[in-house]
Amino acid sequence: MTGNCFRNNKMSAINNKIYAQLLTETLPAIIETEAENERALQIVNRLMDKGEDNLSPEETSLFSAFGEVV
Questions:
Q1: Whose CA is closest to 21, among 61, 64, 70?
Q2: Cα angle vertex 39, ends 33, 41, to 5°?
Q3: What whole-number distance in Å separates Cα of residue 32 and Cα of residue 6?
Q4: Hey, where are the domains in the chain?
Q5: How does pLDDT run across 13-48, given as a tens digit for each residue?
Q6: Residues 6+ apart with CB under 8 A from 19
Q7: Which of 6, 26, 37, 43 has the CA that lies 20 to 30 A from 69?
Q8: Is residue 21 within 8 Å of residue 62, measured between CB atoms?
Q9: Strand ranges (E), 1-70
Q10: CA–CA dist 62, 39 (Å, integer)
Q11: Do the Cβ atoms of 35 and 54 come closer than 8 Å?
């Protein structure tokens, strides 16, 4: 494994730069308000609409991260 990648549950290499960009754009965090919940659900729904087989490894990891907070 290189310093630039880690593996998700599907054993696909994760590009840290791409994943960091997704995290920066979405800012997953513990949900404390209804507005934060709605924002998180919009992100999850957008990923679900793409379909599991169409998500990049980075999007799959992001989906998992949001699954922990929603």
A1: 61
A2: 100
A3: 30
A4: 5-69
A5: 999 999 999 999 999 999 999 999 999 999 999 999
A6: 58, 61, 62
A7: 6
A8: no
A9: 5-7, 13-15
A10: 14
A11: no
Q: Give me 53's structure tokens.
A: 């087989």
Report the predicted TM-score, pTM, of the whole model to 2 decimal places. 0.78
> Given this model, what pLDDT does residue 2 score?
41
Supply the pLDDT for residue 68.
86
Closest by alpha carbon to 49, among 29, 38, 63? Answer: 63
Residue pair 40/31 in contact (Cβ under 8 Å)? The answer is yes
Q: Which residue, among 25, 3, 4, 11, has the nearest Cα to 60 in the 3D structure?
A: 11
- Sign, CA torsion 3/59/8/29: positive
Please report, as a single letter, which amino acid is at residue 49.
Answer: D
49-67 confidence digits (pLDDT tens): 999 999 999 999 999 999 8
